[in-house]
Amino acid sequence: MKPIHILLVEDNEGDVLLTTEALYESNLPFTLFVVKDGREATLLLGKKDKYADEAMPDLVILDLNLPKLNGIEVLKNIKTNEETRHIPVIMLSTSAFEKDIKLCLQLEACCFMTKPLETDVFCQQVEGLKGITV
């Protein structure tokens, strides 16, 4: 199986490390690209500037609270663009506010998970996406 290309949009180094470790536990072959703010994620997904030659991700793992553009804005950009709307998005946040969860799901995130991640639940969600077209 070809590795899936994952874009992790996370500004907290500790959460990057924990998410990466959880991905390794999923037994899913992957490559990982990390950006630290919503603006960089939008540039990468639009293949603009220094990201013109980057591969389009097969999966986006997106923090809700980001600098420059928040996760909701990035999710809206992904899901309203014909080039990216097919990409599954897993939302991550320390927020468990029902309004945040509902909004993300209405905007077509495939799931919303609260941090700190429960590794087994996160792995199940990622492994459930094995049908991703790569």
Model description:
Helices cover 36% and strands 19% of the residues. By secondary structure, the protein is an alpha/beta fold. A five-stranded parallel sheet has the order 2-1-3-4-5, with helices on both faces. Helix 1 packs across helix 5 (119-127). The longest helix has 13 residues, at 13-25. The protein is globular and about 35 Å long. The N and C termini lie close together (9 Å). The mean pLDDT is 87.
Brief overview, please?
The chain is an alpha/beta fold and 134 residues long. It has five helices and five strands.
Question: Would you tell me which CATH topology applies?
Answer: Rossmann fold
Q: Biggest sheet, strands in spatial order?
A: 2-1-3-4-5
Order of helices and strands: EHEHEHEHEH
Low-pLDDT regions: none
Mean pLDDT: 87
Largest sheet: 5 strands, parallel
Morphology call: globular
| Second rung of CATH, namely the architecture | 3-Layer(aba) Sandwich
Number of E-type strands: 5
Q: Give the class-level CATH name.
A: Alpha Beta
* The CATH homologous superfamily: Response regulator
Query: Number of folding domains?
Result: 1
Residues in helices, as a percent range: 25-40%
Indicate the structural class. Answer: alpha/beta
How far is it from the N-terminal to the C-terminal residue, by CA?
A: 9 Å
